[in-house]
Amino acid sequence: MSLLKQRLTICKEIVPYVDKYKLQWVVLLVLKVCQKVPILIQPLIFKFFIDSVITMKNIKYLYIVILLYLCLFLLETLLKVGHRIIDNILFNKITRDLRKLLWEKYMYMPNRKYHDYDKSDLVQRLNLDIDMVKFFLIGEVFDYITAVISIFVSLCFILSLEWHIAIVTYLLIPLSLFFAYRYKGKLEELSEKDRLQRDKMGEKVQDIPNNWKEVKANQLEKAEINFFDSILNRLLSVRKEKEEYLFKKTIVLGIKGQLIDSLTIYIVGGLLHFLIGIPVGAVIACVNYYDNILNDFNDIVEMNSNLEWVKPSITRVIEILKMEAESTVSLQKIKKDIYEYEVCNLCYSYGDSSKDILNNFNIKIKNGDKILIDGPSGKGKSTLMKLLAGELECQKGDILYKGVSIRCLPDIELYKFIRKIDNEVYFMNITIREYMQMAKRDINDDEITQACNMVNLWEDIKEIAPMLDDKIGENGSKLSGGQRQKLALARLFVNNNKTLLLDEAFSAIDVKDKKEILNKILARYKNESIICVSHDNEIKSMFHTKINIQ
Q1: Burial of 16 (0-12, 13-18, 19+ CB in 10 A)
Q2: Which pLDDT tens digit goes with each residue over 108-124?
Q3: pLDDT of residue 80
Q4: What is the spatial distance between Cα 176 and Cα 25, in angstroms, rounded to a whole number?
Q5: Helix H or strand E encompassing 400
Q6: Rounded distance, CA 330 to CA 404, Å?
Q7: Is residue 179 a contact partner of residue 252, using CB atoms and an 8 Å limit?
Q8: Average pLDDT of the segment spanning 13-28
């Protein structure tokens, strides 16, 4: 009963996200159940054949039996084809919709929440875990309901055919269940080991891009190969043990079900045939129905084991889907003249450190201020910039942006006003034109040229991507460090930001270009606020207002 409740609970959580397919769900379930009709009717036809054709030697009934079997075969084929068509259409749509919903949650997830998740974990939720939802809906819902209905109908048919044999059958079923569930615990344990090893292998594959430079630099290729080989060996070992156990289970249950149980029913049926004259066809039909019951019970036991296997994946998908949307405070509605930023009693520390990197920090920045954040390395300058940009969440104290707590502002609203550039800008593998279009959708080539000229990048671009349509490589790998920073800064000349946060944004740019580019930015954003972190004396000299963090 607990497993049934778990299925119902999971269904209640999934259905709201796919409830627009209610009609298809009903049609598919009806087709799935109807596929059992030919299987359940066949023993009755076989009984009719034994009793009417063979026992009574009435050959004319043979044509009826043949016709009935042909009709059942045609019905079964049509039901399978219809079920397969609707199944493919429905579950492909469901997995597509769930992936889209999950992707939307990722896109609107607050920037600071990404720190709670590993990248490979988010990818797995979008791929494998969604597939597990599909597996659950097909196997753990549709197949489960069909098996339960089939067992109930088979028990009713046995009772209607011969109640004496029905009593024997009902006594044998608990024994069969005992043998079937005897193997359940061990199989669940082996399935969990299999899942853990697969997860380890997936994590290792996901880590390759992050660790590749370290592996090459330290000549750890052979060690990595050996480590991956050990994971594969453990996985194969678990799967071998699982296959051997499944084989043992199949042999034992086969002997018990097909030999002992069936032989018992045949013996009892034979005795009843001689003692009270029950039809031979009824005995054979009851054995067939009992075999159907055993097969359905074995399917249910396997589905119960699979439920424990797929449940973690479904829980992980639902966790993201149920993530609450951010608040919808709009800065556009704020009219009064207030501070750009008010940092109030801000405290922040990393990890388990008892020492705050920022401790009761307070500043006020007016609209249009040009501020340099100065101080020794490791004192929290970059941390402060991340807090101001909403990338980190205040642990104590608060930050007000235009009079509104930054906690209450969704990223999508905050980033309409703020643009943060640091020394390591991440680039997707897109073209320069596409990168600039992210700042202004309808930007033309002349505007791109002008923006790139403002940061002294156009001459380089003509050599790298003469038509602006060559991809710049993953994380801008075709560009140098200085060119990547210049490209990020070029977008400032097509944006209409209200606040710029520049955290070592000029660190990789040549000395001769730094001052010129910053002068152009200061001119472009003369009425907006600029907060800058830099260790470069040339940059520092251009800011008259400094806030020192000690």
Answers
A1: exposed
A2: 777 667 767 777 778 88
A3: 86
A4: 33
A5: strand 396-401
A6: 10
A7: yes
A8: 83
